[in-house]
From TrEMBL:
UniProt-recorded Gene Ontology molecular function terms: potassium channel activity; proton channel activity
Membrane topology: Multi-pass membrane protein
Subcellular location: Membrane
Entry keywords, A to Z: Ion channel, Ion transport, Membrane, Potassium, Potassium channel, Potassium transport, Transmembrane, Transmembrane helix, Transport
The UniProt record lists the keyword Transmembrane helix: yes
Reactions it catalyzes: K(+)(in) = K(+)(out)
Transmembrane segments: 9-27, 39-58, 70-94, 106-127, 148-180
A Gene Ontology term for the protein's cellular component: membrane
Descriptive protein name: Putative membrane protein
Entry annotated with the keyword Transport: yes
Family the entry assigns: Belongs to the TMEM175 family.
Signal peptide (UniProt feature, chain positions): none
Amino acid sequence: MNKSRLEAFSDGVLAIIITIMVLELKVPEGSSFFNLEKLFPKFLAYILSFIYVGIYWNNHHHMLQTVKKVTGAILWSNLHLLFWLSLIPFVTAWAGDNNFSNAPMMLYGIVLLCNALVYTVLQYHIIHAHGKESLLAKAVGNDSKGKISLLLYTLGILLAYSLPFISGIIYTIVALLWLIPDKRIEKIVAEY
């Protein structure tokens, strides 16, 4: 399989994920702006999750620019990532419907952590298929940003039971870390 099919399939799944998330935002009854107040938690959850899906789409796109050959391990790792990304609409709706209470925030964090772990596995398989001197290996380096994210997700999950609001802040901080485009891959690809 060539990488363009992998990219197209992944883009399609991510587009569906975003569509499912926005469909969870039901139009409120009533025509006053005060009727929108009930949607505020759901809307906040939607914004954060939309940003996360956008971050994954952006970084996935950049990472696949370094791929020259697609192996079975890359295909399965990519599919595994799409599975965890597909759970984002569910945890987004649950967290938003329940005003970011402890169990939904814990599960939200678990899904974010699993996405990050599987993304790291996909990165590993791409590097393994292309060698330690590959573009991706050079761009990622020791991936301190990825490791910090994993630690913050774990902290957010642990705090979710007693301090779900703090968990939400931690998940937002991780998103902000990645919202600034990661130039490592762009820079390496431009050089070669």
